[in-house]
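Same chain as my last thread, 383 residues:
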Amino acid sequence: MPERAPQVLGVDEFAFRRGRTYGTLLVDVETGRVVDVLPDRTLETFAAWLREHPGAQVVCRDCATAYTRAIREAAPEAIEVADRWHLLQSLSAAVEETCHQHRDCLRKHAEEETVTEGAEVAPMLLPPAELPRTQIIERTRHRYEDIHRLLEKRWTISAIARRLDLDRETVRRFRGTDLDQLLASARERRPGGVLEPFTAYLNTRFTETQGQVSGSRLFLEIQARGYRGSRQVLRKHLAALRAGTVEPVRGDIPSPRKITSWIMRPRETLTESQDERLLQVRLACPDITRACDLARAFADFVRHRRGYLLLEWSRQAEQEAPKPMRGFAGFLRQDLDAVTAGLTLPWSSGVVEGHVNRVKTLKRAMYGRASFALLRARVLIQP
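reply #2:
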């Protein structure tokens, strides 16, 4: 083992058992070799290692609080570099949350487009839409109640995760997200994805016939249009239409995740159809438009290392952006120096993430049959 830390040190966590126990991986970013493996991810362990192995001038890390505090305590002269991939991931989550919050704008715009195209059928009077009591929706509702009940008792994130056997990121998401948004996300994950491209057509036909069209006829119609699923999936959708648990008239609204993927990708990689659909989304909702412009500007900073523009971007986002984007901008301000370095310097945690994947492979090959000492030795002895 080297007595001094490498000049450019990369640090990241890996799971011994996801959601329960974690270790820390230390990598020489310049050479790409693993320096050491620590048995946990606590502030004290990492800080002690930095004191015993001085010399790190640059430390590449994600946004984990324990690592940040350890660096500031044990290696205050080191330059911290926030990982660009994690920054883009957090930005993507903020954009997706914005799209979730403005689904009504997209739905209203789609319905207006349907009317403009000449729909002459009077709307049907169906019961108010209700969330179907599927397993995933009920699980989401109960999990939200359990987490918030423990939060009211002042339980920590880690304690809740251990009690409910969840990952800490899951607990954080349920803590910071409205129940309606979580339920909407759960509803989109229901089975029946093979039918999704045909739901707009089915809903329109259902409305045109006042619900009198037969399932067999609709099955033949969508089969002629390329449907390859079963009749049972179609029957469930028609039953939901008749029960009022889905909207009777609904345009082809892209999911928040799909919209986010269009926004986060370079514009030149989008197809003509995707670019057109994203334009329709932007026309439907000014807030999504603003989030899109800010996200693309930030992604441009990342790709072209324009960290000197970050402060002005943060000011604009905090003043004009939707709430999730303002939260992301506030998060950047709390770690401004490291984020600016990440958008300026050539170093990143990419090589560290590669070694984390290697550790996962080794761990799964021997998990439950060997000790941490053997795992550490196999990680350090590279081919």
